[in-house]
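Problem 12. The chain below contains 450 residues. Write out its predicted structure in token notation.
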Amino acid sequence: MKKILLIITSVILVILIAVGIYMNPLLPIITGYAAKNLASGIFVSGRDQKDIEAVDLNFSFIKYTKNRVDLENKTVVSRFLWNKATAVYQDGYGCTIVRDFTKEEILDRPPLPYQSTTKQRPESYWPKGDKLSLISPQDVNYPVLETAVNNAFALESPRMGSRAIIVLYKNQIVAEKYADGFSAETRFLSWSMAKSVTNALVGILVKEGKIDIYEPIMMPGWEKDERAAITWNDMMHMSSGLEWEEDYGNESDVNVMLHKVGDFGSFTAAKPAVAPSNTDWNYSSGSTNLVCLKMRDYFECDVAYYAFPYNKLFKEINMNSVVFETDAAGTYVGSSYIYATARDFARFGFLYLNDGYWMDKQILPDGWVDYSFTDADASGGEYASFFWSNTSLELPDIPKGTYSCEGHDGQVIYIIPSRDLVLVRLGYSKKGTFDFNLMMKEILAAFPEK
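Solution.
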């Protein structure tokens, strides 16, 4: 009997050790994800804790976290097993996980000279303001469009999880709908749509003569190895050749970067080259954050760096609601963390639909939109420069010349120049629960072919 008990005890001990070995590296990702996304959801988007936990955090091990929200100090502490993570909020900068830097160091940033607001501006007409024209395009089948948009809010797969849809046609909003609990004043998380915003910021620096995208980006420590040949263009085409794993389901590079370290760009820069640049396409959120880190070199101080996207992009195109979050090292997280209203995301698509011009003002350099929409050599027609491409007809019922900003869990801005159309769809849709091709097929049926 004693021998049997010893065997059972040993087996249980081995199992517990194995579970501990498996779980230990994942715990900071689990608690970090919960703390960061709950904090931003509450303090940036203005949502309810219970709603976020019931939907956005209700998956995998994330749903087992215990979360404490301090509304007065604007912090969230998330715990799971023997690990905890803290996320802190700072006005203008949103929320950041406390990693590798102290809370005090993270909060010791200069006040942003530009404060965002979600309040609508009814005194001005769209796109400058939010007052919609009473004269609508006459070549739209509005009943078909209304049905298509309503279909996209169905509560079952393959249409699950829509929270906001806006359709622009001929520079006017012709359809707009929100799910219960969301509105025109809700800030939505971009996830990887932020990469396309980073494309615009690089473009502005090119316009100012500060960057040549075909020159090496050159990070410290790269001088004497093959990484010295990596250009800005290679990074933006996701063809740097750097080692990277983009998988949200395990302890991958993207999860380690976003949830376990404080300096996202430096984490990426430390990766070795596994292929010559511009020969292998490998989607990497790290590439975008490295670009954001390198951009800091072109500003005389952090005040100028932090003001840059607001003064040179967001304010110029009336994206007044934007909160662009940083990592703990103070670098903008251009891979993932921009919050804005649906209408402001539509304004961003409008900028690219109109060749980088806002009304009559040139924001992006000549030819920048053409460059941004030109397929990366190694992508097989799926990706351009921090934009997705439909050249490969991955979505068969959408025009080949469609380009998109796409983010985790179903965020997307479709830009279709051939149809003079922009569509914004925001929501929470796990992989396989929403059919984007079906949605676009039904919406496009409301517009004339050209």
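Discussion. The chain has 14 helices and 15 strands. Students who got a different answer should revisit the alignment rule from Section 12.3.
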